[in-house]
Design brief:
This protein is α/β, with parallel strands linked by helices. It folds into 2 domains: 114 residues, Dihydroxyacetone kinase, domain 1 (Rossmann fold); 127 residues, Hypothetical Protein Tm841, Chain: A,domain 3, CATH 3.30.1180.10. It has 12 helices and 13 strands. This is DegV domain-containing protein.
Length: 280
């Protein structure tokens, strides 16, 4: 059976991964002069508290050594590693480099793919791959089954604090400064190559931001065949507001609310909300 592997962008801890047969390689965050593997050594609530107290966070991908260790442990059988979007994280590059450093007999078993996305859609891809692997499909068959989803997804981010995006290079300093002065609600989206975030719109309120996002979903023919997620960083009230709007516009779609991990809180900041869809 093909072993499925992913980083913690798919919002699984190592223990949660074990429960479903998933190998998880955690991302790391640094805050208050300490570095933690997310979900293993720090949870989102604790991390949020430290950030809100004024500590500036940073994040990093799993090291080549950590990835090599997992490949050595699981690489005797076919292994499919589905990583967070290349460019938004260096994880794909690290995972690919680690695979190239494996002995030939194990290297040929390892396939690394760039999901082109993160969080909710990434989680869906991993869950679908797990289901297909348990059905006995080969790596090639799993990739063929994932292909339609890999080509049909979109992510939007509504940050509460421009500074986190500016520090992470996700927003130009000028846009951050202007947006902050105008007290507007920004809507960010991934670029076509999935490697960066760019400004999609500036709105007057969170409600108007959701209207803008739903309009784009409708233009892209999002419907019952898509999976929609609302992921947030300590913003349950905003997440509920987003969920209510999405359920009103897309009553037949599966919509889940998820908590963002520390690594993505580092980029989006406290109180940010991500709205995403992916074709099932």
């Amino acid at each position: 059976m093909v072993q499925i592997m992913s980083d913690s962008s798919a919002l699984y801890s190592i223990a949660q991964g074990k429960e479903v047969g998933l190998v998880v390689n955690p991302l790391s965050v640094s805050v208050a002069d300490k570095t933690y593997r997310e979900f293993e050594e720090i949870d989102s609530d604790t991390f949020l508290k430290l950030v809100i107290e004024g500590n500036t966070p940073s994040s990093s991908q799993p090291s080549v050594g950590e990835t090599l260790s997992l490949y050595e442990q699981y690489g005797d059988a076919p292994l499919l590693n589905i990583t967070v979007a290349d460019g938004l994280s260096g994880t794909y590059q690290t995972a690919s480099a680690a695979a190239q450093n494996m002995p030939e007999e194990k290297r040929k078993n390892i396939t690394v793919i760039n999901s082109g996305t993160l969080c909710g859609p990434h989680r869906y891809l991993v869950q679908k791959a797990l289901s297909l692997a348990k059905e006995g499909l080969s790596t090639e068959e799993i990739l063929n089954a994932l292909a339609p989803s890999l080509g049909n997804h979109r992510s939007f981010l509504i940050p509460n604090d421009f500074d986190f995006l500016r520090r992470g290079g996700r927003l130009t300093p000028l846009a951050a400064k202007v947006g902050g002065l105008l007290k507007l609600v920004p809507v960010m989206t991934t670029t076509k190559d999935g490697k960066r975030l760019e400004k999609f719109a500036l709105c007057r309120s969170f409600a108007s931001a959701m209207e803008t996002i739903c309009k784009n979903f409708l233009e892209n023919k999002v419907g019952p065949e898509h999976y929609i997620t609302v992921s947030h960083a300590g913003a349950p009230a905003l997440a509920r507001q987003a969920l209510e709007k999405l359920r009103a516009v897309f009553p037949d779609s599966q919509i889940d609310v998820l908590n963002l991990s520390p690594a993505f809180i580092t980029q989006g900041g406290p109180q940010c909300v991500a709205i995403q869809y992916i074709l099932k």
